[in-house]
Design brief:
With 218 residues, the protein is α+β, with helices and mostly antiparallel strands. The protein contains 9 helices and 4 strands. It has a 4-stranded mixed β-sheet with strand order 2-1-3-4, with helices on one face. Strand 1 (4-8), helix 1 (13-25) and strand 2 form a beta-alpha-beta unit. Helix 1 (13-25) packs across helix 6 (159-171). Glutathione binds next to helix 1 and helix 3.
């Protein structure tokens, strides 16, 4: 079998999702380090985003498509239920995480800390302060969602959980969101339990170059 390559930067939550998927399936892969809009990424993603994937003649962009491929091309436990309603609920949560949770928690809030774009390089308080009330509402939704079974869908660990965990890892490192996570009892228990999974631990990215830790204190 040809080598499976996941191409992107390990700190990207979407790259991390595909790597957890590989680890859960037991699919061997090589992480090829590349930034968005680099030639190797632009050759595969029409808008230059990471991750992209190469497996022999097969190239793919978009984390959802890559995870579908990993789930169906390799042996190992299914990453999404094959039964219609639970499978659809998994897609629903992947979509909710990618279209609501990621834009607020990652693109807006986390970026205001790690890539603030301020003249002095300090966190962008205006962006953070605007995000906080909306974040509180999202934490409440997630807390309720995992309260019953400790998973986003049914009784098992699925691609829905895989999509959420990297985001929770990052919000656990920043002051306002860490406090919200700790206050959301069910979500915090869910996070602490699943962040200890081997597939998550073995793929956890190092801090951005030039930083020694992910943590930022308030
Ligand atoms: N819908 C894409 C989103 C990927 C994405 O936004 N990746 C970010 C890094 S986490 C990126 O490449 N950003 C560069 C850009 O937007 O130009 C997926 O699921 O793979």
């Amino acid at each position: 079998m040809p080598e499976l390559q996941i191409i992107g930067a390990p700190q990207s939550n979407y790259v991390w999702v595909t790597r957890i998927a590989c680890a859960e399936k037991g699919a061997p892969y090589t992480l090829v380090s590349a930034l968005p809009h680099s030639p190797e990424v632009d050759a595969i993603h029409p808008f230059g985003k990471i991750p992209v994937m190469r497996h022999g003649d097969i190239t793919l962009s978009e984390s959802r498509a890559i995870c579908f491929y990993i789930d169906h091309a390799f042996a190992g436990p299914p990453l999404a239920p094959r039964e219609a309603s639970e499978g659809a609920r998994t897609e629903q949560w992947i979509s909710l995480v990618n279209t609501h949770i990621d834009p607020l928690l990652v693109r807006q809030y986390l970026t205001a800390y790690f890539f603030p774009g301020t003249s002095d390089g300090r966190p962008n308080r205006a962006v953070i302060d605007a995000a906080v009330p909306k974040m509180e509402a999202q934490f409440a939704v997630l807390d309720r969602a995992v309260g019953k079974t400790g998973h986003l869908v049914g009784e098992g660990f699925t691609l829905a959980d895989i999509n959420l965990l990297p985001i929770l890892f990052y919000v656990d490192k920043l002051p306002e969101s860490r406090a919200m996570l700790r206050d959301a009892t069910s979500l915090n228990a869910y996070y602490q339990r699943h962040v200890a999974r081997a597939s998550v631990k073995e793929t956890t990215p190092p801090p951005f170059p030039g930083r020694s830790t992910w943590e930022i204190e308030g």
